[in-house]
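FORM 7B: Structural annotation worksheet

SECTION A. Query
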Amino acid sequence: MTNLQNGFLIDGLDELELENTAVDELDCENINLIFLGIDQSGSMDVYKQEMRQALTGFRDALKNSKEADEILVARANFDSEIAVGGYKRIEEFDTGFTACGCTAMYDAVVEGTKKLKEYREFLKNEGMRVKAVFAVFSDGDDNDSVNTFGDAKRAVEFLNGEEITTAFISFGGKATKVAKDLGFRNMLDVSSSASELRKAFQCLSKSVIESSKSVVADEEDFFKI
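SECTION B. Predicted structure
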């Protein structure tokens, strides 16, 4: 297959590999896919600097781990709109953060699930052994999605049925109920403060690293490190 990117023809890569990490760039057969959905709605504006620091710490912890070569991370930002990135090496992880608008959480869950499913199946068809973690960080309930609660719940049910680890960080506790109702199996409920924000992402990075070491998915023990 031939594709056009930045004015150049690229042979042997389909659209999925162009968006994500191409198979020939992978150095191992065991791959851990990490989806991280990040709430960038206006209510997070007061924590912009702390979020940038927390995301930098998350990236550096994974980058310095022995499992770094096996980890690919996709970042999805959601406010009034969503932007779901491809699965890239941890050193390419974007640590920037802005905050405005509403909370299109359901859209991020639904679209993030689609992209994880597609790339996971692609890697498996290429002979890779793949595990995955689907994590979301939010400080509130959805109030601006095109997709419904039912759509998002079915997406989470699919992830759980595929033995993909589903994890949710509820910042300030407002999102706890909706996360439980959606079916996320692992919950980290922290208070809304800068110190708790840092602790939450430290816990997330440690949990990702420990999960990457295990042979099977951490269905309900992801945050127990």
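SECTION C. Observations
The first strand starts at residue 2 and ends at 5. The longest helix spans residues 105-125.

SECTION D. Sign-off
Analyst initials: ____
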